[in-house]
From TrEMBL:
Cell compartments where the protein resides: Membrane
Keyword Transmembrane: yes
UniProt name for this protein: Protein DETOXIFICATION
PANTHER family in the cross-refs: MULTIDRUG RESISTANCE PROTEIN (PTHR11206)
Family: Belongs to the multi antimicrobial extrusion (MATE) (TC 2.A.66.1) family.
Organism: Lupinus angustifolius
Pfam families assigned to the protein according to its UniProt record, in alphabetical order: MatE (PF01554)
Stored InterPro entries: MATE_euk (IPR045069), MATE_fam (IPR002528)
Keywords of the record: Membrane, Transmembrane, Transmembrane helix
Amino acid sequence: MGDNKDQDFFSHKFPTTSQVVEELKELWSMALPITAMNMLVFVRAVVSVLFLGWLGSLELAGGALSLGFTNITGYSVLVGLASGLEPVCSQAYGSKNYGLLSLSLQRMVLILLVAIIPISLLWVNLEKIMFFMGQDIEITRMASIYCFYSLPDLLTNTLLQPLRVFLRSQKVTKPMMYCSLVAVAFHVPLNYLLVIVMGLGVPGVAMASVMTNLNMLVLMAGYVWVWRKNEVVFEWGCWGGGFGVVCDGLGKLMKLAVPSCMMICLEWWWYEIVTVMAGYLSNPTMAVAATGILIQTTSMMYTVPMALAACVSARVGNELGAGKPYKAKLAAMVALGCAFGLGFINVTWTAILGHRWAGLFTRDESVKALVSSVMPLMGLCELGNYPQTTGCGILRGTARPVIGANINLGSFYMVGTPVAMGLAFWFKIGFSGLWFGLLSAQLACVMSILYVVMASTDWEAEALKAEKLTMVEMGSCNEHKIMECEKDEESKMLLVNENKNKDDIC
């Protein structure tokens, strides 16, 4: 008998307190460094918004519009597609199929390289698109400048996002945190140099963000390259199989990547579409500026459930890949419990610190008042967002992103959008009506996901699916291994026959 930690539970027994505590330790040993890394990425975004705010209200509004547009059309797509690696890498690592783990990374990089081509065309034409949609001319022109200078960040993210998933699936989280810390430490000096000293203004803010992401990528890639033998599983064998080996499994990986992308993007897009809708309110400059601050605030709060979702996806995938369905179920239930508890914390602080929080971003009293009036409502949204985001991570870990995509589509666009537009524009409630729409969407989403995860998931069936996913390879990497093994067997047989012949001669 092995260690109890390495054994699965019985289907008819509940886990003990010690097993729950052990899972909590396992989950948060991964989630805390990822949360810290996400918070550092948020700090980078906040610094950019602060510098935009110091440049002026127009620059802040233009930057907020550009950040919304680039998130909708670019970053959300790249992060979403890269999340398609989560079930493959985590389950492959759990089943010790390291060839699939490394090969899938290369395949995802190729997918993202193709994806950034149309995204680049959209970014270059932001000004024309926003003019066509009737956005304010001055805000749009400022946004197009920021967007243009952010173009190199697309190439950086085609490597950075898959690498994060690749490392996280192997429980390598602390090195990512340290790399992010070093990169973000230089972000403020970069902004000060480019914006204040060199006087580049909005282009300087965009260039500083690009350089910070590039620093993160170089540091993480350097870690994998230099220290991978000590901590990171990285097989070169499949990489040498040629371009055909990589392309052979692209279609099957895309079947996971596309719905994973839609699951993330449908939610992410709705948050950013709020910025666009705010541009149609009676005072667009003030509304868009306030939305930019609120979006950054939700981004800060999102760092925790995003880390929790990513880590529970890895935990569930690892256990399913290892053939332990009830340890996977325990990981899912523990993560959901943590999500609800953390959601209540956000309700409390947003209700208390609204006006003071807004003062960190702007000195405009009207923008401060608008932000503080909506902060308590946004806190209620996070009470649903935490378990909903965590549930989406569980669905990715079980390789069921299609379900999550359908839930997000129905919740945010069949429920949230009609409520938001009806309250904001038809009933003339205005800015707060947009956030009531978000609240209704989150309620619908969390109830649906909790039903799927807690009531209708057959964990033993999911373990069998994981075995099929990892053993029946998504390309020809294993086929090459099988061929090599067959060649080895043939060589052994030839050697045995040769020795027999020699014995006969003797």
